[in-house]
Amino acid sequence: MFASNTRNLMRSSFLQRCKSTLVVAEHNNEALNPITLNTISAAKKIGGDVTVLVAGTKCGPASEALSKVEGVTKILVAENAAFKGFTSESLTPLIVAAQAQFKYTHILAGASAFGKNVLPRVAAKLDVSPISEVIDIKSEDTFVRTIYAGNAILTLKSKDAVKVITVRGTNFQPAATSGGSGTIEQAAAGDYASSLSEFVSQELTKSDRPELTGAKVIISGGRGLKSGDNFKLLYDLADKFGAAVGASRAAVDAGFVPNDLQIGQTGKIVAPDLYIAVGISGAIQHLAGMKDSKTIVAINKDPEAPIFQVADIGIVADLFKAVPELTGKL
């Protein structure tokens, strides 16, 4: 019995030492996307060393910022013209090469458009099943994620040798951006150019408002606003709060606002301190993207609207009267 217990302890200690995680950083070469810090926190829950891969064209500033993040052991930097535009076709062979060199047991990225684009391809190359949008980490092989548009919570145990995981950033606190002492190393050189795709250009929407996924306050509108012009009511209210403006899928599909404002299962997942839903009925698809908000306020003239079931404060009123009145009192 004593010998058996000793072997188990030695095996547990060996596994603890062998655990290592590669976090794929999301950035624009100069600054980190906030979800990277949430993903690093998730990686720390797994245990073992945390390495962050920074791939880009001139990503020195992003690498320097990561070296100061608490909990990061090492930063692998890969600068190559092939990484312009951060296409999955060029990043995947780099990530696979890093895993082959350092034998990482876990590969993580944020559950953003970037992470959802890159990591499934990496998982396919490694012949493992990707684990998407985890909301908690129980152990090195056991993870929690939502299913059925957030109506059920699944705890799964992965038997794959390498766990490839996207992380829902709203469920993990961001890692501290000071106090770290990670070393910066160059990733293995290689020809990462892809003939499958080529980055041509991108046009980014510029706004003085906070980015949706990082905003503390969000004012969100639905089909009840009746037109895109009426979203000005929400912009005026948002100005009072210094808030971001979002929308339901119905509002986006109706052409009221661009799809980068969409919140929900097929849009952005948010968890602000205050979420004000205006003219939103509360379809399951939308609730999946905002129900973790700290305080939810709903304004809707239909007292039977499903949004009131998750709201902390419900206002049954005509939004065209209630919103201007609220704006005027702030």
From TrEMBL:
GO biological process, one term: fatty acid beta-oxidation using acyl-CoA dehydrogenase
Sites where the protein binds FAD: 223, 248-249, 262-266, 279-286, 300
Main location (coarse class): mitochondrion
Keywords: Electron transport, FAD, Flavoprotein, Mitochondrion, Transport
UniProt key word Lipid metabolism: no
Gene3D superfamilies linked to this entry: HUPs (3.40.50.620), TPP-binding domain (3.40.50.1220)
Protein's job: The electron transfer flavoprotein serves as a specific electron acceptor for several dehydrogenases, including five acyl-CoA dehydrogenases, glutaryl-CoA and sarcosine dehydrogenase. It transfers the electrons to the main mitochondrial respiratory chain via ETF-ubiquinone oxidoreductase (ETF dehydrogenase).
Single GO cellular component term: electron transfer flavoprotein complex
Cellular localization per UniProt: Mitochondrion matrix
One Pfam family this sequence matches: ETF_alpha
Entry annotated with the keyword Zinc-finger: no
Cofactor annotation remark: Binds 1 FAD per dimer.
Signal peptide boundaries: none
The protein's required cofactors: FAD
GO MF terms, alphabetically ordered: catalytic activity; electron transfer activity; flavin adenine dinucleotide binding
Family label: Belongs to the ETF alpha-subunit/FixB family.
Subunit: Heterodimer of an alpha and a beta subunit.
Record's protein name: Electron transfer flavoprotein subunit alpha
Domain Electron transfer flavoprotein alpha/beta-subunit N-terminal: 21-203
